[in-house]
Amino acid sequence: MNKLKFKTGIRFAILISATIFAILHFDLNFIGRFFMGVLSALLYIETKNIVNCIIFHMLCNFSIFLFVVLSQYVHIPMSNSDGTPQPLIIVVFYSSIVISIVMNIKYIKNNLPRKRSISL
């Protein structure tokens, strides 16, 4: 993404990166994957650390996995009769995004180099 950012500008690089992310997931929910790609690109640009993007992706995947497992025991249907996702799935997905952002902010605050004051 860094080379693309310098050649085309940051906004276009984010859009291309998010589009590639969404396409490579081979999922019909292109918009959701595209949104995750945009958030991951913004997270990478802010932190310059791919590990944060990986953690974000893992949290999103884990939240969906957790919902699928819990729905087998609690008998929560994954989708409505017309095939649209249940509101609970949407809440779980966006909750994972919020949790990931909060965790990344804490990580950034704890790992940014501190400015040293020089006293004469």
Major sheet summary line: none
Distance between the termini: 43 Å
Number of strands: 0
Mean pLDDT metric: 74
Number of folding domains? 2
What is the molecular shape? flat
Please state the CA-atom Rg, rounded to the nearest Å: 18 Å
Helix count, DSSP H or I runs of 4 or more residues: 5
Strand content: under 5%
Class inferred from helices and paired strands: mainly alpha
Helix content: over 70%
Query: What letter string, H or E per element, gives the SSE order?
Result: HHHHH
* Low-confidence region ranges: none
Describe the fold and architecture.
It is a single chain. With 120 residues, this protein is mainly α. The protein has 2 domains: 1-47, no CATH class; 49-112, no CATH class. The chain is built from 5 helices and no strands.
Short description:
The protein has 120 residues and is mainly α. 75% of the residues lie in helices and 0% in strands.
Distinctive features:
single chain, 120 residues, mainly alpha, 2 domains, 0% strand
Set down the secondary structure blueprint.
Blueprint: H1 2-8, H2 10-24, H3 30-47, H4 50-74, H5 87-111
Helix pairs in contact: 1-2, 2-3, 3-4, 4-5
